[in-house]
């Protein structure tokens, strides 16, 4: 296949690239390559684009993990794939036994869980990229009084507020405009149900950002708790902003507009708390919807190949690019050719593709390749037994971490010297994980004594299923006299608050390629740091903040499972950044501020960049943004797309 443009990936950078290029040249031939497949909910009808495919195998479909309780864990685990070949070969072996009897193959992954020495990284796999499992948050970094973004102080390209645009729908510009035009209007979801229009009119004029004492019971428990207990400060840090609802790329019911047939056709948030596992009502603005409704269904000149795992990119003698990929349907290596190539496979995907291309000699890259990896300061923790330690005259309400969108509101903090920023959000735990998370928290909370008891109970499983202590862990018989038996998933975490945090880390990670011990013919990403990331200042400050809030909540702080539980001081990030960082020259970055890839080729001394080869995703960030990065990805991609001549 030969086309005008090949776009590798289907996430935010890729979607911006395609939509903006079509605005310039509507008839341009564009082919998108995606290593995953389509994901949808069984509760909504399939779009006509997929339902009417002449060959169903051309666009294979899977459905979100379910059911929405602990039995769904098997569904969830089946769609997680790691970068550990030994683990995956073992799973394939047992899956092969299953295949022999049923004829079914292992599902394609929705999640990629990449394990490294100091950091584990969770990413998405599917048409729509990270939008499939992200928290829907549309937010720009913290500004200073002059309107600048301190986190970008050392960036070669410093974004401005107008690059993000305005929440005002009448002001058409920037990243927010693209999000609204191609995805939909954002909403605040901090109440247990959408506020009826009567409450938004005189004399009440209720604003979800500041409900009065007579109506604060309408808040989601976790939203209210962050609002009430976040007014804390420390010796080295203080609050840098008020509690605010988050702008979420989610439909919420609006009694002023969603009536009649419109309400029947448009899904809205039901507060099911499973955004990161796929929204069953279909209320989220995922990019697979954007690609179908605004690209593929209306532009036959745009095509999409799923299950296409790109290995590398090669510059041909004629100046065009050949993109090589492994076809997941038959396992064969194939390729397509285009004049313009846009790499938008995400931080891990884009970095790996460029590193492999450099190793094969098909591209010659800067010495900065793989550098400036940032965890975006991601950190997490829990508060259990919320409000137990408060005076009796304080109001009591349940937190219910399983309800509402996965994140609903936030508060920002900063150190006194301004060098570290921290964004704290009320996190959510999908009901499917409530039992597992609750058990894990209990183990960590009670430390070794509880772990030893747990192991002793497990060892007695086969001797007696009627043992009382076994029944405590795995209740097989109902006992209506005990309220803690057979709890609902909501009850399991009704007094647990989950912190979801981001901050300004030092971005000292370096990706390299190394041979796979269990598959010598393959290479995989390795990640190392010039310092131990867990020792960076941002994590000390973040933990101090959430400990202070835990005390204010009258509960007990419990660290994240890999921080001080089943592992020690290991980070987990869902916002990986960098690896192909921007720079003013090849000594500083892999790409320039226009997203063009620097060309370090002695055979072409007059060429500083590769013509028509771009990177457009979070891998080009030279550092953290200390908030959810989606809006910044879009803002940067829009600026890069402006300069692409097609």
Average the pLDDT over all residues and give the rounded result.
Answer: 91
Using only C-alpha atoms, the radius of gyration works out to: 25 Å
Oligomer: single chain
Structural class: alpha/beta
Low-confidence stretches: 460-470
Sketch the major β-sheet: 8 strands, mixed
Query: CATH homologous superfamily of the largest domain, by name?
Result: FAD/NAD(P)-binding domain
Q: Can you tell me the overall shape? A: globular
The helix count comes to: 16
How many domains, as an integer?
2
The CATH architecture of the largest domain can be named as 3-Layer(bba) Sandwich
Strand content: 15-25%
Text of the CATH class of the largest domain:
Alpha Beta
Strands, total number: 23
Q: Write the CATH fold name of the largest domain.
A: FAD/NAD(P)-binding domain
């Amino acid at each position: 296949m030969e086309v005008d443009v090949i776009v590798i990936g289907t996430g935010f950078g890729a979607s911006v690239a395609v939509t903006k290029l079509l605005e310039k040249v509507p008839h341009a031939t564009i082919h998108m390559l995606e290593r995953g497949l389509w994901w949808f909910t069984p509760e909504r009808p399939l779009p006509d684009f997929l339902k009417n495919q002449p060959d169903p195998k051309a666009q294979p479909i899977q459905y979100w993990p379910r059911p929405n309780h602990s039995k769904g864990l098997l569904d969830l685990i089946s769609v997680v794939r790691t970068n550990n070949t030994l683990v995956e070969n073992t799973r394939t072996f047992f899956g092969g036994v299953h295949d022999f009897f049923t004829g079914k193959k292992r599902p394609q992954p929705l999640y990629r869980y990449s394990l490294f020495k100091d950091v584990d990284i969770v990413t998405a796999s599917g048409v729509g990229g990270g939008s499939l499992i992200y928290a829907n948050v549309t937010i720009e970094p913290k500004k200073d009084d002059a309107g600048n973004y301190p986190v970008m102080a050392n960036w070669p390209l410093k974004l401005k507020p107008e690059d993000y645009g305005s929440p005002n729908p009448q002001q058409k510009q920037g990243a927010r405009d693209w999000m609204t035009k191609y995805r939909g209007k954002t909403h605040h979801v901090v109440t247990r149900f959408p506020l009826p229009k009567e409450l938004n009119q005189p004399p009440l004029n209720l604003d979800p950002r500041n409900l009065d004492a007579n109506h604060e019971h309408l808040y989601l428990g976790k939203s209210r708790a962050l609002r009430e207990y976040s007014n804390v400060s420390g010796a080295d840090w203080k609050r840098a902003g008020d509690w605010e609802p988050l702008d979420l790329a989610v439909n919420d019911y609006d009694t002023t507009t969603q009536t009649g047939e419109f309400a029947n056709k448009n899904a809205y948030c039901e507060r099911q708390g499973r955004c990161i596992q796929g929204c069953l009502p279909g209320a989220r603005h995922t990019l697979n919807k954007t690609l179908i409704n605004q690209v593929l269904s209306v532009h036959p000149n745009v095509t999409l190949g799923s299950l296409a795992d790109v290995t590398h990119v090669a510059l041909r003698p004629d100046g065009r690019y050949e993109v090589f990929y492994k076809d997941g349907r038959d396992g064969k290596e194939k390729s397509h050719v285009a004049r313009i190539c846009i790499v938008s496979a995400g931080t891990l995907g884009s970095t790996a593709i460029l590193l492999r291309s450099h190793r094969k000699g098909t591209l010659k890259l800067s010495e900065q390749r793989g550098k400036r990896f940032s965890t975006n300061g991601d950190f997490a923790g829990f508060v259990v037994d919320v409000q137990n330690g408060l005076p009796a005259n304080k109001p009591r309400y349940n937190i219910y971490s399983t309800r509402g969108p996965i994140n609903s509101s936030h508060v920002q903090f900063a150190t006194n010297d301004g060098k570290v920023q921290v964004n704290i959000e009320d996190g959510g735990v999908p009901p499917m994980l409530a039992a597992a998370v609750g058990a894990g928290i209990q183990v960590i909370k009670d430390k070794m004594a509880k772990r030893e008891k747990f192991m002793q109970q497990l060892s007695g499983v086969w001797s007696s299923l009627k043992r009382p202590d076994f029944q405590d862990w795995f209740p097989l018989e109902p006992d209506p006299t005990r309220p803690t038996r057979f709890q609902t998933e909501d009850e399991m975490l009704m007094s647990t608050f989950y912190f979801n945090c981001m901050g300004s880390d030092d971005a000292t990670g370096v990706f390299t390629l190394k041979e796979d011990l269990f598959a010598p013919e393959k290479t995989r990403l390795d990640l190392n740091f010039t310092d131990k990331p867990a020792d960076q200042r941002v994590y000390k400050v973040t933990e101090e903040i959430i400990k202070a809030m835990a005390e204010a909540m009258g509960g007990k702080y419990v660290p994240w499972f890999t921080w001080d539980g089943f592992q020690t001081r290991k980070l987990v990030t869902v916002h990986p950044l960098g690896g192909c960082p921007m720079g003013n020259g090849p000594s500083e970055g892999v790409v320039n501020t226009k997203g063009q890839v620097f060309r370090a080729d002695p055979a072409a001394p007059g060429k500083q960049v590769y013509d028509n080869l771009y990177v457009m995703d979070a891998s080009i960030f030279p550092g953290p943004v200390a908030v959810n990065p989606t809006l910044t990805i879009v803002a940067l991609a829009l600026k890069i797309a402006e300069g692409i001549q097609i």
